[in-house]
Amino acid sequence: MKAKAKEITPQELAGIIRRHPRVVALTGAGISVESGIPDFRSAGGLWERFDPMEYAHIQAFRRHPAKVWQLLKEMDETITRARPNPAHYALAELEARGFLAGIITQNVDNLHQAAGSKRVVEYHGNALVFVCDNCRGHHPRETLDFSRSPLYCLCGGLIRPDVVFFGEAIPPAAQADAEELAQHCDLLLVIGTSGEVAPASYIPAIAKEWHAVIVEVNLEPTRLTFSLAHHFLRGSAGKLLPLALKEL
Ligand code: APR
């Protein structure tokens, strides 16, 4: 088993960022926990309460739409109440000051954009955008009455959030944009993800193949810490990223 990544401080992270001109961030649910959005696999996470195969798989949505809409409604309430936290703002500031080329996010909560980040690859889509599952027609969120879910398009198709359910492919444009960023960065910040879900979990390996330094920011070590991260910054992203930014 490869040795665990070297633990670093926020000050050391600032030094690493300063020494690498092409920095990219890969973010997961952990970066939004401090905005009030539970992650999936920590204690108390969403998948402790909802079986993802029953509530987040595309076949489950098509077979039992009313049941899946129970989760969709809860997620919509949580996401629309949430605001960016200091971690989101720190990444937006890093981009604005030219230290960050872009973010590949697995999150569908729109909080990076709300914090001011411009180059955001929404690898799993965006839960605030609604489309028809059949004709892909766009349905503005404000036209939808969730109390009447499941909701149907005029074409008869089910209306759904424009997110990637389990069992679905990553949108080709997002896949291509993410690979472009991963292959051309020389530092990848992996923030708040367990690295459990493919193909997002391959992104750090792609970056490393292209000689990027991998720095993980997480409350606790993950499979990435032991397999491919060079450095590990232990703690909450909302606390540590602003501390690193302060040193730049
Ligand atoms: N700061 C940093 N890391 C945190 C914080 C925090 N404040 N809070 C939690 N974490 C870490 C957890 O330790 C965990 O490693 O964030 C990670 C969250 O992991 P998951 O819940 O598995 O979320 P994620 O990796 O984004 O899941 C990937 O799985 O269910 C699918 O589509 C869903 O996009 C999601 C994908």
Q: Could you list some keywords that capture this structure?
A:
seven-stranded parallel β-sheet; SIR2/SIRT2 'Small Domain'; 248 residues; Rossmann fold; 36% helix; 11 helices; alpha/beta; two-stranded antiparallel ribbon; 9 strands; 2 domains; binds adenosine-5-diphosphoribose
Describe it.
The chain is α/β, with parallel strands linked by helices and 248 residues long. Helices cover 36% and strands 17% of the residues. The chain has helices at 10-18, 46-49, 52-55, 58-63, 65-81, 86-96, 111-114, 172-184, 203-209, 223-227, 237-246; strands at residues 6-7, 23-27, 102-105, 120-122, 125-132, 159-163, 187-191, 213-218, 231-234. Strands 1-9-8-7-2-3-4 form a 7-stranded parallel beta sheet, sandwiched between helices. A two-stranded antiparallel ribbon has the order 5-6. Helix 1 packs across helix 11 and helix 6 runs parallel beside helix 11 (237-246). It is elongated. It binds adenosine-5-diphosphoribose (APR). Adenosine-5-diphosphoribose is lined by residues 28-30, 33-34, 39-42, 45, 52, 106, 124, 192-194, 196-197, 217-220, 222, 236-238.
